[in-house]
Amino acid sequence: MKLLAAMRTYLCLALVLCAVLSLANGHCYQIQVEEGAAQCLDPGDNRWHPLGTTWRNSECMDCSCSGCCSAYGVPTGVPDDCVAVLDKAACEYKVFKKNDLSTECPFMGLVGK
Which of 1, 17, 49, 69 is the most exposed place for a label (fewest CB within 10 A)? Predict the structure, then answer.
């Protein structure tokens, strides 16, 4: 009986872990580089970058010539009377009251990045 209870506990923990890990991945995409190329094109900014470099583009993506991933987390648990707005200068979301964008709202946490 104790073995069955322990197995159920481990199964529940495994399911929770799988759910949390699926939320931890930020938004990413790959960049195609021609074989033998010395540089790559960032599709977000349409700018060329030398191989081996890293940069942050105007879409708040951290990039290299192999790909780009979001440099920000997305708020979760945002109250219904609030809205999340991406501040591209700071590359972070801010959460405000829908009817008063000068008043910040609390939220549960961030997903991604």
Answer: 1
Domain positions in the chain are: 1-70, 74-112
Q: What is the pLDDT of residues 47-87, one digit of tens each?
A: 999 999 999 999 999 999 999 999 999 999 999 999 999 99
Cα of first residue to Cα of last residue in the chain, in angstroms, is: 42
* Top-level class of domain 1-70: mainly beta
Q: Is 78 exposed, middle or buried (0-12, 13-18, 19+ CB in 10 A)?
A: middle
The pLDDT score that the predictor gives to residue 112 is: 81
Residues with Cβ within 8 Å of 103's Cβ and at least 6 positions away in sequence, in order, are 96, 97
Could you confirm whether domain 74-112 is CATH 2.20.25? yes
* Of 17 and 91, more confident: 91
What does the radius of gyration of the chain's CA atoms come to, in whole angstroms? 20
Q: What are the residues facing 29 on neighbouring strands?
A: 68
Position 87 scores a pLDDT of 94
30 beta partners: 67
